[in-house]
Amino acid sequence: MEEVKYTIYKLVDPTSKEVRYIGLTFNSLKQRLRSHYSEKSKSHKSNWVQSLRRQGLRPLIEAIESDISSYDDVCDREIHYIEKYKSEGHRLTNMASGGNKNKKMSKETRRKMSESAKNRDFKLVLSEETKRVLSDKSKKRFEDYNEREKLRISNKKYEDSKTDDQKLEDILKQNNKFVLQYDKEMNFICEYPSINNASKLLSIDVSNIIKCCKGKVKSSGGFIWKYK
């Protein structure tokens, strides 16, 4: 399996040559720039990129460091470069200190995000036809090996970014979920207060029950398992 390599990069204003953003990616710089250019969020960085786009311009993207194997290292390097360029007077559009595993937003940024969330009063409702189309597109997309590999790398990056406390919390939440036991004809048999409890009573491996609950395997220990 191919080893994931990360790159620290900077986005540069094409007219003033000022560095405006520091980021990290495991994709090619061309792919990352295309992602920034098409982004529709309301972040400071996105607003800046879109202002360039309206002028028929796009930011320049340049590698600062590349071929970094460790996710922890690349997060630390991103934090370092954000601090470095800010100290040199560059008006970075980064909202956080960098390093996905240790992002620190300012009180003002948190306040604005909180106010924005409070003012949202809508619920997205999709028609059955729209749901079907999205489902078909998703299935077709992941028939492609390259797309599945991108998802695997993305998931790995997300899991690697979690602290030890977050990983422990995930395990505790998972183990404290009620689980329902069915036979292979989907006739209800029993309810258990946790996966660990069911595992101990029936001598079935915890990980196999979890896989069944998540739909990764059809059954475990001769039974079908569902989260309550």
How would you summarize what this structure contains?
The chain has helices spanning 29-38, 44-54, 71-87, 107-118, 128-141, 145-160, 164-175, 195-202, 206-213; strands spanning 6-12, 19-25, 60-68, 179-182, 188-192, 224-227. With 228 residues, the protein is α+β, with helices and mostly antiparallel strands.
Structure description:
- The protein has 3 domains: 6-118, GIY-YIG endonuclease; 128-161, no CATH class; 170-227, Arc Repressor Mutant, subunit A (Orthogonal Bundle).
- Helix content is 47%, strand content 16%.
- It contains 9 helices and 6 strands; from the N terminus they run ββααβαααααββααβ.
- The strands form 2 sheets. It has a 3-stranded antiparallel sheet.
- A hairpin with a 6-residue loop joins β1 and β2.
- The two termini are 36 Å apart.
- The relative contact order is 0.09.
- The model has no long low-confidence stretch (mean pLDDT 81).
Q: Write down the secondary-structure element order.
A: EEHHEHHHHHEEHHE
Q: Low-confidence stretches at least 5 residues in length (pLDDT < 50)?
A: none
Number of helices: 9
Termini distance?
36 Å
CATH architecture of the largest domain: 3-Layer(aba) Sandwich
Q: How many distinct beta strands?
A: 6
Mean pLDDT reading? 81
DSSP strand content = 15-25%
Q: What's the level 1 CATH class of the largest domain?
A: Alpha Beta
Report Rg. Answer: 23 Å
> Which secondary-structure class do the elements indicate?
alpha+beta
How many domains?
3
* Major sheet strand order: 2-1-3
Shape: elongated
